[in-house]
Specification:
single chain; about 150 residues; alpha+beta; Rossmann fold; 2 domains; four-stranded antiparallel beta sheet; 8 strands
């Protein structure tokens, strides 16, 4: 078992990648790795289980997918429009359109898939980006939720 506190502080990007490759190898060999870090973007996609702590109190616990579902934060779709003057009729009223970009917040995966299907069929859409809530956003959400409850 490895317990690591802020293990990548001061490492350049190449060394950070090498460090995580070594950890992956150790995990494959059966090691349990616990990492405490504020560099949440590094851990996203690497952590099997996430514990969010605030002042020594467990605030949230689960896989990244479970925490995203629990938080209920919107999934963000970004559409690049082929013609900035043409707003597709199927866009929700709360979609934010600025020049050739359109930002849409979607509450759940079913809504995301519905909008992705519409966007993929529409020749007015030149590109599609999807952004799930990040670990940083989840951390901030659960801390605010805990502080409001206190």
């Amino acid at each position: 078992m490895l317990l690591l506190d802020e293990p990548t502080t001061g490492l350049d990007p190449a060394l950070r990648l090498t460090f995580y490759e070594i950890l992956d190898e150790l995990r494959r060999d059966g090691a349990t790795v616990l990492i405490s870090s504020h560099a949440l973007d590094e851990l996203e996609g690497r952590a099997e289980q996430v514990l969010i702590m605030n002042r020594g109190i467990l605030v949230a616990d689960g896989t990244l997918a479970e925490l995203r579902a629990l938080a209920g934060l919107p999934i963000r779709l970004t559409l690049k429009l082929a013609d900035p003057a043409a707003r597709p009729a199927w866009l929700p009223n709360d979609a934010v359109v600025a020049h050739d970009r359109c930002e849409i917040g979607v509450a759940d995966h079913a809504g995301k898939m519905r909008l992705l299907r519409q966007a993929a069929r529409d020749p007015a859409v030149a590109d599609i980006g999807v952004a799930e809530p990040t670990l940083d956003e989840l951390y901030a959400h659960f801390l605010r939720q805990q502080e409001r409850a206190a």
